[in-house]
Amino acid sequence: MTVFLDFERPIAELENKIEELRHLSNNERLNIVDEVSRLQTKVERLLRQTYANLTSWQKVQVARHAERPQFLDYLSRLFQDFIPLAGDRNFAEDRAIIGGMARIAGHSVMVIGQQKGNDTESRLLHNFGMAKPEGYRKARRLMELADRFRLPVITFINTSGAYPGIDAEERGQAEAIARCLEACFKLRVPLISVVIGEGGSGGAIAIGVANTILMLEHSIYSVVSPEGCASILWRSASKAPEASEAQRLTAQDLYTLGIIDRIIPEPLGGAHRDAEMMIKDIGIAVEQSLQTLTALDGDQLRRNRRDKFLAMGKKGLT
After folding, report:
1. What is the 3-class SS of the chain, one letter each residue?
2. Quick check: pTM over 0.90?
């Protein structure tokens, strides 16, 4: 059963009506095909109107949708021969970040992704996608391993941010993220990042300093969550909708600013409405990026990545 967001209430009412009519048709054999067809057309039209005019705050809600495909969905359907690699060789295994070697489109790669979980048990297991220092140290270890064996690195970003707990700070959260950023900049292999949902704070960019940054149409990417921004500026998380507008955190804003390289369109109504199509389209985009980047040598890749991030902030501000 589809979970509807607040702004989708008129759509939900129509779809519930369609389900009621189908139920009547099955049990009372009423001929309501024409009525169902008419309502479905109306739903599609309403979806197009709604999703063509989403506010930044509504995009935040879509990016966080509970049924949105997550990293493990992409991993299981796009990659073959996945060999998980665990632990940071220092403290523990962090399940908020999952990584290992795999194959995609004929390429051997290192794939790393943030997994939030989709029910209470899995969310607790993966700590809601919020990694601790050991998660970032694991990611760094895997990236350095990929560099040694000349494997392109593909990362999937979906986190509200790094874990803010005292234990994470005691074990050097900031240092772990900084070292992860450093590892990204030093790589002499292609690095491709895909923002599949919520890209929040340093916890996201730690694995996102990439040659090519792809972003789903209704995903978000920012230095702080809208709630966090609102709490800082207005001392109230209730101002999150206003903060999201000011932050320019949508894929469309970030493409205009030159922060990301490509927006991947989502199925009508969001990625959760047709996960298979979304996964297929991301696979195509990743394959195209790999074909372009694998033609460059290590010095070019590292230089292009550095120049790309030094140039950020200069586009779209005039």
Report:
1. CCCCCHHHHHHHHHHHHHHHHHHHHHHHCCCCHHHHHHHHHHHHHHHHHHHCCCCHHHHHHHHCCCCCCCHHHHHHHHCEEEEECCCCCCCCCCCCEEEEEEEECCEEEEEEEECCCCCHHHHHHCHHHCCCHHHHHHHHHHHHHHHHCCCCEEEEEEECCCCCCHHHHHCCHHHHHHHHHHHHHHCCCCEEEEEEEEEEHHHHHCCCCCCEEEEECCCEEECCCHHHHHHHHCCCHHHHHHHHHHHCCEHHHHHHCCCCCEEECCCCCCHHHCHHHHHHHHHHHHHHHHHHHCCCCHHHHHHHHHHHHHCCCCCCCC
2. yes
Q: For 194-208, how does the pLDDT look when each residue is reduced to its tens digit (9 = 90+)? A: 999 999 999 999 999
| pLDDT tens, residue by residue, 239-297 | 999 999 999 999 999 999 999 999 999 999 999 999 999 999 999 999 999 999 999 99
